[in-house]
């Protein structure tokens, strides 16, 4: 066959004689049904014998043979249309099969290219053609032209036509075969090319007869013949209509299947683009390298997906024999979701396992497996929770708009929307039993997509409430975090207040998973930290103004002086001063004021940026040493909300000479908080890996913020030792350059801690802590089971 195809140099009978002989087109005598059936069977064997990948083809037929053959046949088929009518008629029958053979070859090449493409984070659609265009050839110039030709369509109809059922067929098989034969015979001979599939070509056609004046349009998925020899694939294709067909006529999200056979599936044609094409088109209009979280897109597309899955689930519940195995799609990826051009609804296609992922078909699998549950890819028999995994991965795609090969929830969710990160991590664990640990319905083993949709919308509204209804969130790190420097409290008290108020309004309507652990406790500490920050800064600035003998018409101070009968001082608090503490005396008190004010600014920033709104206690009481470490970490975190500012108030109200000692105490507390929190983060990561949780990256280097946070401990220890040593020497009078050291401490607090560590690096370090706290909650739920 290949020798004859390679020998095609023209279109005359002499040029095509060898090919005619191979195809059985030179036999003399009348064309009988038996001879025609024998020829079709021979053609099928030829097509089925084509190696599916280029390496196997070239190993069998010579290096570069498939590429060269595709090029030769493309030139021959293209030039056929330019021949005169007589010559075209002379080789029309040869052209019909050659066109189908070429269509099969380019389909295999395209299948391999799609399966072998490499997808990296941020490369949305870089390796894809636009709007479903092929990666390896020009479909408009090759595939569309071939399928539109009457001779090629005739050969397609002959080769793919279903054979009548044998006398020993089971009654149900015979009925389905009869339905397939009827639908095939009712098909108009004119077909149009639509797109390539992973193992197929998809054509568009219509019925030969009109129904109510309209010829219904259908999509015809033809399995490439080399794949039809795989029995599992052929069986799944043959039984597709039986397994996933639905008699219901008012379904909005499921495509109606008309019939199926060993080599094809005929289904309703939906005008629209695949979700993969839609995502790529949207990504093309966004700046490269900038990851944003679109809450509007996440809500809009997320609701559509939940509705589609709920409909699939409902069909299975109403009619189990017609709703697929348990209402599970099993191959839910962007390429298997069509966005309807009519109403934007998601229409689910290609239900059932894709045998690329189970290695039934050799070759790569491309990017789509990142959306497919591990148990499906492993070929497990029971997959009732497979679509939950795909749902989580698709929601991640909707939020970021970027196709990614990463297997964990992206950092932008942990940084800007931890409530959504918590929801997504509850869906995408590799172990099916560990999905819905948090958002499950108490006392139920099954789940409802409608209830999950309500929980998803609730978490989304929480994020909107926290972010003041902002529809788009960006990663605030590096230079983008500079604007946060103007907010010493990082906006967290207001954010926690809005979250608490929104939860309170929702009240008992919240699901179990939506009830954030210790929400009131976290709000209280955030407000307390803000109050202490305000009080401390007010006190330091007030005492500085007193040192400078400034009158700024502070009516509150005048009222306190009037009520206390102390026109030159302040009642009560001035009595706390040591005997050698004079006010005003700006020369003596300036070092304490400088250092105190820097701590009063930096310490709340440290707490609010890293710890506010987070609690290690989410792990619960049943996790042994991890629960005990969580209690210690909780104490260390909450101490940092008030104690540093308490040290500042002590040197402001009682004794300014304490500033070196109190600075050392503050740095030691910061070092301890860093060490204890880092130990907790690492303990959670270690425990999650022992338990097999997959929501945390397997490599520490891929956990954003962990490496930076690890460096904080030695640097804070070094600074604590330096401040303690110099502070003791200053306090004991062995050093006398007080202003120099005070300026050094002040600049370190403001530049190193406030700007660099908390301001610029803090958002990324917080990602590591958020991830640990969310994982700890899952560990606690898992331990409770």
From TrEMBL:
<dbReference type="InterPro" id="IPR011009">
    <property type="entry name" value="Kinase-like_dom_sf"/>
</dbReference>
<keyword id="KW-1133">Transmembrane helix</keyword>
<keyword id="KW-0418">Kinase</keyword>
<keyword id="KW-0472">Membrane</keyword>
<feature type="transmembrane region" description="Helical">
    <location>
        <begin position="706"/>
        <end position="732"/>
    </location>
</feature>
<feature type="domain" description="Protein kinase">
    <location>
        <begin position="188"/>
        <end position="457"/>
    </location>
</feature>
<dbReference type="InterPro" id="IPR000719">
    <property type="entry name" value="Prot_kinase_dom"/>
</dbReference>
<keyword id="KW-0067">ATP-binding</keyword>
<keyword id="KW-0723">Serine/threonine-protein kinase</keyword>
<feature type="transmembrane region" description="Helical">
    <location>
        <begin position="521"/>
        <end position="544"/>
    </location>
</feature>
<protein>
    <recommendedName>
        <fullName>non-specific serine/threonine protein kinase</fullName>
        <ecNumber>2.7.11.1</ecNumber>
    </recommendedName>
</protein>
<keyword id="KW-0808">Transferase</keyword>
<dbReference type="GO" id="GO:0005524">
    <property type="term" value="F:ATP binding"/>
</dbReference>
<feature type="transmembrane region" description="Helical">
    <location>
        <begin position="665"/>
        <end position="685"/>
    </location>
</feature>
<keyword id="KW-0812">Transmembrane</keyword>
<keyword id="KW-0547">Nucleotide-binding</keyword>
<dbReference type="GO" id="GO:0004674">
    <property type="term" value="F:protein serine/threonine kinase activity"/>
</dbReference>
<feature type="transmembrane region" description="Helical">
    <location>
        <begin position="635"/>
        <end position="653"/>
    </location>
</feature>
